[in-house]
């Protein structure tokens, strides 16, 4: 039976309600994709910032710089939206952008260099964490 004022169940004892609420919160916390999405977000931030320590501009690789900057910003935005409102379609967007990071060294012909290793490592981290976040949600 609920009260018309608070919509709370007054027939169940308070300690039983508290235990049920706690168990429900624990179940939600165990299956939360948030830790994986946090790693994807941090990888996206690294992708944008990494142009300075790796030296894309010094090597005159503006195509690599802009590719990584645009992908990093897009993944960061999509990941923030996924954290606020979980949408299965956005998982595919993140996976596609991570796939581009894996293919970009071949398409843009980086050669074997620092930017290639960076894109492959960040792309794999994003792809793996995106898959894990999709399976946990």
Q: Element order, helices and strands?
A: HHHHHH
Provide the residue-averaged pLDDT: 81
Can you summarize the main beta sheet?
none
Rg result:
21 Å
Task: Walk me through the structure.
It is a single chain. By secondary structure, this protein is mainly alpha-helical. It has 2 domains: 1-30, no CATH class; 33-136. It is 75% helix and 0% strand. The chain is built from 6 helices and no strands. It has helices at residues 14-30, 34-49, 51-54, 62-84, 88-107, 114-136. Helix 2 packs antiparallel against helix 4 (62-84).
TL;DR?
The protein is mainly alpha-helical. The protein is 75% helix and 0% strand.
Structure keywords:
137 residues, mainly alpha, membrane, transmembrane helix, SPW repeat-containing integral membrane domain-containing protein
Topology:
Layout: H1 14-30, H2 34-49, H3 51-54, H4 62-84, H5 88-107, H6 114-136
């Amino acid at each position: 039976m609920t009260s018309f004022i608070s919509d709370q169940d007054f027939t169940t004892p308070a300690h039983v309600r508290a235990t049920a609420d706690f168990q429900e919160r624990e179940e939600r916390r165990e299956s939360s994709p948030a830790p994986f999405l946090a790693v994807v977000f941090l990888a996206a931030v690294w992708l944008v910032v990494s142009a300075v320590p790796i030296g894309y501009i010094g090597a005159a690789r503006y195509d690599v710089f802009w590719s990584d900057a645009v992908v990093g910003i897009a993944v960061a935005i999509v990941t923030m939206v996924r954290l606020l409102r979980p949408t299965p379609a956005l998982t595919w967007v993140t996976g596609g952008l991570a796939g581009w990071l894996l293919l970009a060294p071949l398409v843009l012909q980086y050669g074997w260099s620092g930017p290639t290793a960076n894109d492959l490592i960040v792309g794999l981290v994003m792809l793996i964490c995106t898959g894990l976040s999709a399976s946990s949600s």
